[in-house]
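User: Fold this; tokens only.

Assistant: Input:
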Amino acid sequence: MAAVLALGAFPFRSTWWGGWILAIAEAGIVGGLADWFAVTAIFRRPLGLPIPHTALIPANWELMASRVGMMVGGRILTRDYVLGEIAHVDLAGLLARGAGRLTREDLETATRAALGWILEQVPPPMGTDLLPRLRTVLADWQLAPTLARAVETAHEHGWDTRAIEALAGALAEALDRPELRAALGEVVDDLLTRYRERMTAGPRLWLTLADVLGLLDRGRLVTALQGGLAAVACDPSHPIRRQLADAIRALPGRLLTDDTLRARVEGVKDELLSSPVVGRLLEEAVDALRVSLVADLARTDSAAVAWTVDRLERARRTVVTDAAVRAALDEWIKARAGELVDRYHDRVPVFIENGVRALGAEGAVRLIEEHAGDDLQYIRVNGTVVGGLAGGVLYALHLLAGFW
């Protein structure tokens, strides 16, 4: 438009008004060309000419990426700013709304998909790979402190007493089976034989006499053992039950302070990990579990899916209805998020710098042009208009000077 205006005013350049219009048009052409050159020089070389201080973004891309990372990560996304934004988020409300929108069908679909994905990641020929991987993971893992924490947690929730009760009751019921009673009788015979071999002549004589007279009845011993187990299971104040509870209560402290016990626990762990029998049992158990889960997931009424969904549904309802649980979850999540910010905030500038650097010089040029292309065009238009106005003012001053 400025060039057309200059061509139209050129025949009248000898008149004051024609010269004024021509000055405006010529100055507009110069201003537009100057801004075109300036804007183009930011992104590339104008007309491909090797003019110094052009193609600024490609030439300074590494430095620009570094400065963007430092500016955004160090001055904008500061630690206090990020923690403040996290604190303002209503996580409890988000949890309640999200849990409220879920249905049991949603949970079943997600659970079935997740279990199917897990099974796909555990291929059937696990074979000899499983135990070496387990050994690698557990080689430097101290079992005693973990076992101590597990026992403490069990005691805090009363699981130890329930385990004693359940175990004693299960053993008492198991002794009703004839094959188990017969096997236990054989164990008693073996123990008595070994004990008799270690005794001196006098006690051995009395033990043999008691056996001959029927005082050492195997069935009676097994029945007595069964009765004792039943009493332990039914009587919370039974002395044996109290002694077992006391031993469990003292076990965490021993696991943390008794070097001998710790060494025994670690020795058992190492022995189990190095045992080929344990390896075969583990592989067979994993393969059997996988086959069972595959068959179960193929059914519409999968037991694994139902069991998992029941617990997820219970947790979902708790989140929706229990404000205290939501508040506790909100506090826990924000505390963990704060720990992550403290731990990794110094990496934010590097992360942003690497992200910007990954665009590459050409990618960054395209990105900026796509988002700011219209504004860049208006810079050229504005340069033409401002140049024309400046040219008109200067020519007007020239005319005024001539009149004077």
